[in-house]
Amino acid sequence: MTSLLRTLACALLLGAAVAPASAGAVVDRAELELTLIDETPKPFRLSTARPNPFTSSTRLELSVDATTSIRVAVFDALGREVVKLQEGTLQPGTYSLRLDASNLPPGLYLVRATDGRGTTVTRSVALSR
Q1: SS3 of 75, please?
Q2: Which of 1, 28, 54, 72 has the smallest number of CB atoms closer than 10 Å to its CB?
């Protein structure tokens, strides 16, 4: 329900008319439609990178709610894995992951975290020089 409330609050701040929909909320403003897709609790969360864009290294936070096996890897624009940040079982808590990109060319990269059940979270990072 929290996501739905955030959607409605954003719509009201934009001054839009809001009408409830069966799967979420529809916002009528310049053909903008926001729909609540899924409120299933996630076993982990991966923050956005800070700083982003970055020049040599950046950090992401990985929060784990229960003991789980997690793999976090970085992929280039062609889908090739270029760096592995984490692989193995983690206990509940928050972890800081440092991406050292000093050996990577400038460009857009995807950081993908996947747990043992197949849940995947992806974040984009931009490396500039």
Answers
A1: strand
A2: 1
Determine how β-strand 93-100 pairs with β-strand 107-115. Answer: unpaired
| Residue ranges per structural domain of the chain | 44-127
H-run or E-run covering 7: helix 2-13
DSSP code of 40?
P
Enumerate the β-bridge partners of residue 112.
73, 122
Q: Are the beta carbons of 34 and 1 closer than 8 angstroms?
A: no
- Tokens 């955030």 locate to 6
CA–CA distance, 109 with 116 (Å, rounded to integer) = 23
Give the tens place of pLDDT for each residue, 84-93. 999 999 999 9
CATH code for the domain defined by 44-127? 2.60.40.1930
Q: What is the pLDDT of residues 62-72, one digit of tens each?
A: 999 999 999 99
| pTM reported for the whole predicted model | 0.67
Amino acid identity of 78? L
